[in-house]
Amino acid sequence: MSEWLAVDPYDLCEGLEKYVRSNIPHKDTPLHDFETQISGCNCQTMCTEACLCNARFGPNYSTNHKILPELLTVSSVKPIFECNSHCSCHKTCVNRLVQFGVGIKMEVFTSEAKGHGLRTLEDIPSFSFVCEYAGEVLSDKEAQKRIDCLTQEDMNYLFVLKEHYSSGTVNTCVDPKYIGNIGRYMNHSCDPNLIMVPVRVDNNVPKLALFSRCDIPANQELCYDYSGQSDDRNCTEVDEGTRKPCLCLSSNCRGYLPFDPHILE
Q1: pLDDT-derived band at 184, boundaries 50, 70, 90
Q2: Which of 4, 13, 14, 222 has minimal CB crowding within 10 Å?
Q3: CB-CB contact of 184 with 177 (8 Å)
Q4: Are 216 and 123 in contact, with CB atoms under 8 Å apart?
């Protein structure tokens, strides 16, 4: 399935060197997590709740290929593993969704206040997969280097997913500033219509999948919370003069774009 864009993304944002549909490793990123293949199931047609993939942590999607609503709550800690290239089930298996990429018509547009943004050209039902936030997967060292180099004028595209395990915290740092997909054009909202959920397919590197939280009508801007629906814990430690104002205009607007310079500490 190919991605549909009304405008060529290369023409829209200076600095985008390469357009990709999914994450790729930065040249200094260890390849182990990319190369470690997750085992697959032996289902012959459609997977059941008893198959290997579903048995790991339970089902992820409904029969009409919508994410289960409980997985979009901030409190949800259930890992999502889709069937992968080592599974024998059919490509129409209910447990295959994010891996097929974008299936919704969207366009990049320019607004006077916020610059580039992304909007849908068709109605999107709630709990639908919209797109992946994809780019270079960076090491913590490279990610911190890019954070330290940011100036007040720079656009910050870096997203750090922090997953907590009994053995410690694992960071996944995705930056589509130079190499990325359509997700890089999405603006922040303190009351977003999308929510980000990590989804794994062939390996342990999660895809940062964006799902609709509600019914979204055609021509509405698509936004997500840059803080990942966190408490933006270190906002007060940053000089407000160096923070960018939030222009989402929602009733619960925090006033500034989420930014945590200590996210990797």
Answers
A1: very high
A2: 14
A3: yes
A4: yes
